[in-house]
Amino acid sequence: MRKVVLVTGSSGGIGLGLCERLLSLDSQLSLCLACRNMQKGEAARTALLASHADAHITLLRLDVSSIRSVLEAAQEFKMRYNRLDYLYLNAGIMPNPQLNFKAFLKGCLSRNIIKMFATAEGLLTQEDRVTPDGLQEVFATNLFGHFLLVRELEPVLCQPGQTSQLIWTSSSNARRSAFSLDDIQHQKGSEPYSSSKYASDLLSVALNRHYNSRGLYSSVICPGLVMTSLTYGILPSFFWTLIMPIMWLIRIFTNTFTLTPYNGAEALFWLFQQKPESLDPLTKYHSLTSGLGKNYTGTCKLDVDEDITEALYEKLLLLEKNMRKKVQNEEEEIQNHGQYLHHTD
Ligand SMILES: NC(=O)C1=CN([C@@H]2O[C@H](COP(=O)(O)OP(=O)(O)OC[C@H]3O[C@@H](n4cnc5c(N)ncnc54)[C@H](OP(=O)(O)O)[C@@H]3O)[C@@H](O)[C@H]2O)C=CC1
Ligand SMILES: CC(C)CCC[C@@H](C)[C@H]1CC[C@H]2C3=C(CC[C@]12C)[C@@]1(C)CCC(=O)[C@@H](C)[C@@H]1CC3
Question: Is the CB of 120 under 6 A from ligand 2?
Answer without folding.
Answer: yes
